[in-house]
Amino acid sequence: xxxxxxxxxxxxxxxxxxxxxxxxxxxxxxxxxxxxxxxxxxxxxxxxxxxxxxxxxxxxxxxxxxxxxxxxxxxxxxxxxxxxxxxxxxxxxxxxxxxxxxxxxxxxxxxxxxxxxxxxxxxxxxxxxxxxxxxxxxxxxxxxxxxxxxxxxxxxxxxxxxxxxxxxxxxxxxxxxxxxxxxxxxxxxxxxxxxxxxxxxxxxxxxxxxxxxxxxxxxxxxxxxxxxxxxxxxxxxxxxxxxxxxxxxxxxxxxxxxxxxxxxxxxxxxxxxxxxxxxxxxxxxxxxxxxxxxxxxxxxxxxxxxxxxxxxxxxxxxxxxxxxxxxxxxxxxxxxxxxxxxxxxxxxxxxxxxxxxxxxxxxxxxxxxxxxxxxxxxxxxxxxxxxxxxxxxxxxxxxxxxxxxxxxxxxxxxxxxxxxxxxxxxxxxxxxxxxxxxx
Length: 439
Hints:
By secondary structure, the chain is mostly helical. Among the domains are: 1-156, no CATH class; 383-409. It has helices spanning 14-29, 35-39, 60-70, 79-93, 103-111, 121-135, 142-157, 170-177, 181-197, 201-213, 222-237, 245-248, 251-254, 256-259, 261-272, 275-284, 288-291, 296-313, 323-330, 337-346, 373-430, and strands spanning 45-46, 55-56, 320-322, 350-355, 360-366. A three-stranded antiparallel β-sheet has the order 3-5-4. It contains 21 helices and five strands.
């Protein structure tokens, strides 16, 4: 069987099994269904003048087209018969020269509700799809359609965690299947939705961003705009997302400067500006946040944390920030400063130590919100300082080494002199008489 090995033990030829499935579909569909009557002539024995003996010449593709078109009725099959019926259909599809023509509709059927088994239907459908995915060749692009169906089912039930371990192979799969950007985008979007419904906002955003990246060759298209705005809104509303460099480098995001200037201005605020700048934005765009469904409290909190990160990154050589400076920059009471610093540390934006006695925050590390010429110059300056320190250390090590060598040489010369002096004394001792020493 080309393409697909047997999924279960099925006895009989293609014609016999096709008629059996057609009859079963008529039974499920009820009065007026005529699948069997349409399939039968396509599998009938034929007698011609050239071949007087009856021969069977089945139009496989025509039969499969009839069966697959009617196969949505299998979702009404009794639960105990459901898997066997679908396995039979998949087995017949496998007899075609191009099974890929018929499997995608079958997969779509399996993502529809199993009306005969509301409780267990999803699990049965996942089992069928999982078996089908694993039996297809690794480079068979039909796997793509099977995976779409699996993710669709998991999205409906909020079970993203069931597929998360397998997604580490996703890039390799897409490379093997040689998918078009539009198909990749379709998969990334449904994965994003699946992760979102399962309460995984960061992974949802990751796949949404992958979907946006498939549109960078057409950054001004309506689809690019809609997806880019969706990604931007998701990033702004996420309480854990603080780095917006992944967005600002995208052509479709940059194109928002022309099509959606207010959105672009809002993004720039969160890239490198402060809490005070956000308040000015809100004053100048009174209803924008509410009209776009943005949570103002979430944005205020995120911007306060980012502003604190900026203060820490710009701290003086003493690397300390007075509580009063933090309170002013964040527009918060002085007694709340420590709480905000702790929140910033938990968010991974800064590291440091609070001094209640001195009312200072000692910065150990701070996240740079942007990385440009200024940051490169700062790194260059620190590297020069580090090189100077290393030169000083090397000079000290060199001096100590030279001192050590001199000491060793002195120790080596000392016994030589002593031996020469001691030799004379020994000679004199041998000439000693009556208590006198002859030298």
